[in-house]
Design goal:
The complex is a heterodimer of chains A (414) and B (300). Helix content of chain A is 68%, strand content 1%. Chain A has 414 residues and is mainly alpha-helical. Chain A has a two-stranded antiparallel sheet with strand order 1-2. Among the domains of chain B are: 41-118 and 172-260, Alpha-Beta Plaits; 261-300. In chain B, the strands form four sheets. A three-stranded mixed beta sheet of chain B has the order 8-1-9. In chain B, strands 2-3 form a two-stranded antiparallel sheet. The chains are: A mainly alpha (414), B alpha+beta (300).
Chain lengths: 414, 300
């Protein structure tokens, strides 16, 4: 259990066949980002006046924010509810959230027509705008996530700053900064931890309010007055499955022993959370009588059924089953289903459900849009790999349990 | 450690409170201009009088620094074969609809920004780049816009048009009721001025509504008893009279609720004086404190 493990940089070779594929995807994505800045949004995307938002908003931003929810749910569990048992998974979840939100912000940035004016949102406030609230919350939360990551940096580099070549002259100054941060940041950390959870609740729910203003352009199956609540609950529900999925994949990729004991106890929360989500989703359907749309055979009705059946009902049943909780393949499959369900839900709300008032052509993402979205995901995975090889993020069995220096053990054994 | 952090906790909580209240008072002064004057102006469009000469399209371009081309080009009636929509270089277009019951008398519908009384674009805009002016015009401020295109998502009439072909300084373009060049100083919009059939009437909105209902009363067989824009999405500055059902003329069927709908109310409920977020913060802080206390007593 966690007493016998400590987060340490992973020692593994960087290049594998999978990494090479990711590098190619990343390079391709960056080429298209470059083209977008040179040629404009119209040349690279299939966006037009009928469909102003495409997959850069629907997937990179809306789904990206939801799937980065593991950060605030695990930090709430471990720090606010003080479940020491889960400390091993906090750092990987924090890193995922940090990278995830960074790329959400970048996704918004490249989608903005006047990206160089993004700072306007800090001086021209529109308190009525849902987007304003989402934007401010997301940017503040990114900052909070970086602050929460600082202790991991100090733990790794205090007393070990060794910059190459000419930079070496800054070694001492940098070390001083790190030591200062290390001494002082923990005292304020509780503030940032709570702020992170509050900010997450705010913008996760506000993402659900975002498309309400589109009124009758959004299909009734998703145009719900409790949409913000559904977004919040589904974001909370998808947090732990993301952590489980990442833990299993990264441990396998690095050839480490899995963390099944922590993961199974984490998975116990998912069933009830999905149950609450399903109850609200179904209650909303019954009250607004939107089930009539399910009798029609349309793209919307089919995708709604897939979203709820594969994304909620089946994994809900699986997570309430002890056999699933103990089995690595089954817990992995069930987690993937929840992730798929929430991903599809965001995709549905932002892309599928949207029908312009005057539609002449259907929207389908262009090669450029798909390339950038895949490229961003690839860069995120690569950065995760690089970060866990540099910083003490992933918990591994202790090599020398008798050593008790402050920096090696702090945060695990109190 | 426990004692130390508890004191820090209280100290920092105080700071948060101060910070949040500062934030909320700033928010109350957000500078979005939305004037709904009693004597705001409007335009009444009589689709039964319009002959589809498209002189308004020509005049509109001239008034907005867009090359209008030669005026004879606008006599080409083949453009009516397909429904057209406003573009970044055409703030208004006319579409023709033939009435199956009355094939000799087609309806011609001029399309442009409706200048809503409660504009969804204005409510949605992240930086408040839209404003509703004294005379009813809804205008866009290039100096604020960041090009997020949320106004286009919000608009029920699909009016704001984005310059997708531009890599730098793309604009959101739409009819501004000739605010900048004419109506700000009491002038008449270019399209109204040029209209040879008097199918367009510019005047105070309440007077136009009276006029519209008078016309319907005098010619009940000519008009449908419905002034489009009187109540749709809470009222618009542009009002339409028609001989046939508005949905057949490609007008969206909308409720009388203002277009921003529940989203504004919901937003204000979540953020009313920052009380809900602040209480959530306090609640979580309380849970954290209690759990930490239990933890330290267990260890001691």
């Amino acid at each position: 259990m966690s007493e016998l493990s400590e987060p340490r940089p992973v020692n593994h070779k960087f290049l594998t066949p999978g990494v090479i594929v990711l590098l190619i995807l990343a390079a391709n994505g960056l080429i298209w980002v470059f083209l977008r800045f040179i040629l404009g949004i119209g040349a690279v995307t299939n966006l037009n006046n009928e469909f102003p938002w495409g997959i850069w908003i629907g997937i990179d931003v809306a789904a990206g924010v939801a799937l980065a929810a593991g950060g605030f749910t695990t930090s709430a569990l471990a720090h606010i509810f003080h479940r020491e048992h889960f400390h091993d998974i906090v750092r990987p979840a924090l890193l995922t959230a940090m990278l995830g939100y960074t790329f959400v912000a970048l996704g918004v940035f490249i989608d903005l027509g006047r990206y160089y004016s993004i700072w306007h949102m800090f001086i021209y406030w529109n308190g009525n705008s849902v987007l304003f609230e989402v934007g401010v919350c997301v940017l503040t939360y990114v900052t909070v996530l970086y602050i929460e990551f600082i202790p991991i940096v100090t733990e790794r580099f205090v007393g070990r700053v060794d910059l190459p070549g000419l930079w070496a002259r800054f070694n001492r100054a940098l070390d001083k900064v790190l030591r200062f941060l290390d001494r002082n940041i923990n005292r304020a950390m509780f503030f940032f931890i709570i702020a992170g959870v509050v900010l997450s609740c705010l913008h996760q729910s506000s993402l659900g309010t975002l498309m309400m203003i589109a009124g009758q352009k959004i299909h009734p199956l998703w145009q719900s007055p409790i949409s913000p609540l559904l977004f919040l609950i589904s974001a909370i529900s998808v947090g732990f499955p993301m952590v489980i999925m990442e833990s299993i994949i990264s441990h396998r990729s690095f050839g480490l022993k899995d963390e099944m004991d922590v993961l199974s106890s984490l998975a116990r929360f998912i069933g009830p959370l999905l149950g609450v989500y399903l109850a609200f989703k179904m209650g909303d359907m019954v009250i607004r009588e939107t089930f009539v749309y399910l009798t029609e055979f349309t793209l919307e009705s089919v995708l709604w059924i897939i979203e709820v059946l594969i994304g909620v009902i089946i994994p809900l049943r699986m997570f309430l089953w002890d056999k699933v909780l103990q089995s690595k393949p089954l817990i992995f499959a069930a987690s993937l289903m929840v992730i798929f369900g929430v991903f599809l839900n965001r995709f549905n709300v932002f892309i599928v459900a949207y029908t312009p008032s005057y539609m002449t052509t259907k929207y389908w993402p262009s090669i450029g849009e798909i390339s950038v979205t895949l490229g961003f995901i690839a860069i995120e995975v690569l950065l995760y790999r690089i970060f866990v090889m540099i910083f003490p993020v992933i918990a591994q069995p202790m090599r020398r349990p008798q050593v008790k220096t402050k920096y090696a053990i702090r945060g695990i054994i109190r | 450690m426990g004692k130390q952090s508890r004191r820090d906790f209280l100290k920092t909580s105080g700071l948060i409170g101060a910070g949040l209240s500062g934030l909320s008072s700033k928010k109350a002064h957000s500078g979005v201009k939305k004037i709904i004057a009693d004597d705001r102006m409007g335009v009444l469009v009589d689709t039964t009088l319009c002959i589809g000469c498209r002189r308004c399209e020509y005049a509109c371009k001239g008034a907005h620094d867009i090359d209008p081309g030669r005026i004879e080009q606008y006599d080409d009636r083949s453009v009516f074969k397909e429904m057209r929509r406003p573009q970044y270089n055409a703030y208004t277009v006319v579409n023709e609809y033939t009435d199956p019951e009355n094939p000799d008398n087609p309806s011609n519908v001029k399309v442009q920004c409706m200048h809503c009384d409660h504009p969804a674009c204005l409510s949605a805009c992240i930086v408040g780049a839209f404003s509703k002016e004294e005379n009813g015009a809804v205008i866009w401020d290039e100096g604020k816009c960041i090009g997020c295109r949320y106004c286009m998502i919000a608009c029920p009439f699909q009016i704001p048009q984005f310059e997708y072909h531009k890599a730098l300084e793309p604009e959101i373009r739409k009819c501004d009721l000739c605010w900048e060049s004419r109506t700000k100083d009491g002038g008449v919009p270019a399209c109204v001025e040029i209209c040879p059939m008097e199918a367009l009437v510019y005047g105070k909105r309440y007077e136009l509504l009276q006029l519209a209902h008078e016309r319907i009363e005098k010619n009940p067989e000519r008009y449908l008893d419905h002034v489009y824009g009187e109540n749709e999405v809470g009222g618009t500055s542009w009002l339409y009279l028609a001989a046939q059902d508005f949905t057949k003329l490609d007008f969206p069927q909308l409720s009388d609720e203002p277009a921003p709908g529940a989203s504004e109310k919901l937003q204000h409920a979540i953020f009313s004086y920052f009380i809900p977020p602040a209480s959530l913060f306090a609640l979580l802080g309380g849970i954290m404190w209690i759990n930490r206390k239990q933890n330290t007593t267990e260890e001691e």
